Fold:
Amino acid sequence: MALVTALDRLAALPRAELGGWPTPLHLAERFSEAVGVEVWLKRDDVQSVALAGNKLRKFELVLGQAVADGATTLVTTGAAQSNSARTGAAAATRLGLDTVLLLSGERPDDVGGNLLLDRMLGVDVRFCGDVTWRELNALVEAVGDEVAAGGGMAVAAPIGCSSPLGSLGFAVARLELDAQLDALGLTPTAIVHTSTSGGTHAGFLVGEELSPRSIPTIAVNVGHVLDDPSSDMATLATAAGSLIGLDRAWLADEIEVLDGVGPGYGRHTDEGAEAIALLARTEAIICDPVYSGKGLAGFLAAVRRGEITGPVVFWHTGGFHAVFDRHHGDQLLERLPDV
Ligand SMILES: Cc1ncc(COP(=O)(O)O)c(C=O)c1O
Structure:
C-alpha cells in the first residue's frame, strides 16, 4: 500500500474534535543546561478537556468512531488514579456520551487527583476490587450488556485506550511533530516518552513509517500492563498500521524500550522525585511520580550513560494530576531533594 494512501486513510478516520492541537514544542533552556544536552519538550500536558494529557489523542479517534457508530456510553478501565480513564470520561462528557469507569482496587477514603476529577465530571465510577487487568477487561463486556439492555450502545476502550485505533492517535501526533520540526529547522536525535500500555509507542512507530524523517523513538516503560513490552508493542503497531492499509510487521527487536518501572508500577522512586524536582525547579513544568516523572528519570539516566545526545525531544505525556492525590503527594514530598 502506497504511503500516500495510508496517510489519506489516517486523515479520513472519524475524529472527535476536542481541540488543543498542536501541543507546544519548545526548548527547555535551563533544564538542558542542567543535564548537559539540548532538550526540547513536546507538551501533551497542555490540553483542552479536564487537563487531559497523552490519552486524549487516542480518545479523539476511538470516540470519533464511536459517535459515528451511534454509541451512547464509553466504558473503560484503569487504576484509581488512571489518567486514561479520567481523560476518556472528560472527552466523552464533552461529546455528550455517558461514561462508566471500572477501576481496580477498593474505593479509597481520600478522593484526590484523577478520582476527584472523575467525581467532578459526574461519571459512573465503579471499583472492582483486587482484579487483574484482564479480569477488568472482561467486566467491560458485562457493562456493555447492561447498557444494551437499557437501549443504549457501549463503546469499550481497553486499559490505556491502547487499541489499534487509539494507538493511531500517536501516528497523527508524530506528523504533528514533524510539521513543528520543519518550521524550526530542527533535527532531533531521538524522541523519548513514557510508556505503559504501549499504544503511544505503537502509534509513534506507525508515524515513523509515514514520515519522511527518520527519528528513533524510545519508550521508557513504567508499568506492568504488557507481559513483554517490546513484542506486545510490535504486535500493536502492526495491527494499528494495518487499519490504514500499511503492510508492515514490526519485530520485537526493532522496539527501543528502557526499563523505568523500578520497584513496581505506581511505586515511587528517588530517581523519579529527583527528575520531577529538576524539571520543576528549572522550567516550572510538572511531572507526576507514577508516569511522566519515572519516564523523565529513565530519560535522564540514559543521558547520563551517554546513550542519548541532543537535540532530543522529551514528549511530556502529562499526568500531573496524581500529585494532588494525598497518597501520592505525601510520598513525593518525602522523596523530593532538599533545596
Ligand atoms: C501520563 C501518562 N504518560 C504515559 C502513559 C503511557 O502511555 P501508553 O499507555 O500509551 O503506553 C500513560 C498511561 O496511562 C500516562 O497516563
User: Anything to note?
Assistant: The longest helix spans residues 133-149. Residues 53-54, 83-84, 160, 162, 194-200, 291-292, 317-319 surround pyridoxal-5'-phosphate (CB under 6 Å). Strands lie at 25-27, 39-43, 73-78, 98-103, 124-127, 154-157, 190-195, 217-221, 256-259, 312-316.
